[in-house]
Amino acid sequence: MCVYLIASENIRKVKLVVSMQEMIVTERLCLRPFEPQDATRVAELLANKVISEMTSNIPYPYTESDAASWIASHRERYENRTSIIYAVTLKQTGDLIGTVSLPKLSDGLGILGYWLGVPYWGNGYATEASKALIAHCKKHFGLKRLHVTHLAENQRSKSVVTKIGIQHVRNITSTVRGLPRDLCIYESDV
Asked: Does the pLDDT at position 167 exceed 80?
């Protein structure tokens, strides 16, 4: 169980949050469950079209309502052990910078997903968050095998996947937002 405090901009409002989803702390990051008030920040981060262009499943524009609906789905999915989704925050400031997840988790197989706001690219945060989530899910969720897919032109994702040691198995062409796109497929035991 995880208990943490969330202070709003108005410091007089402090909320105690109890979640069965544990926080994961790394050298520079804190992975925590998303909260409803994160919807504004998620929409701000996804306001940059380049994130949508580098992923196959994030629409553009991405609204605060989209973010709120997405966040509202997390708890039940976690409790059913069908997915695990974390907010990636900077340990020193608590600033929300993106997400790391296993949006599909079943029978020891997980599908890894992540995105970060553009200002946070190139700092190793996605790699650090992914490694921490994989280790946590191996220990607590019986994760045995990992699957990752990224758009072929997304060299930053290729770098993350390579650094976490997942093996490239093939490329395919698939329809993404009505257009044929080349995808790189990776799978490995963890």
From this structure: yes
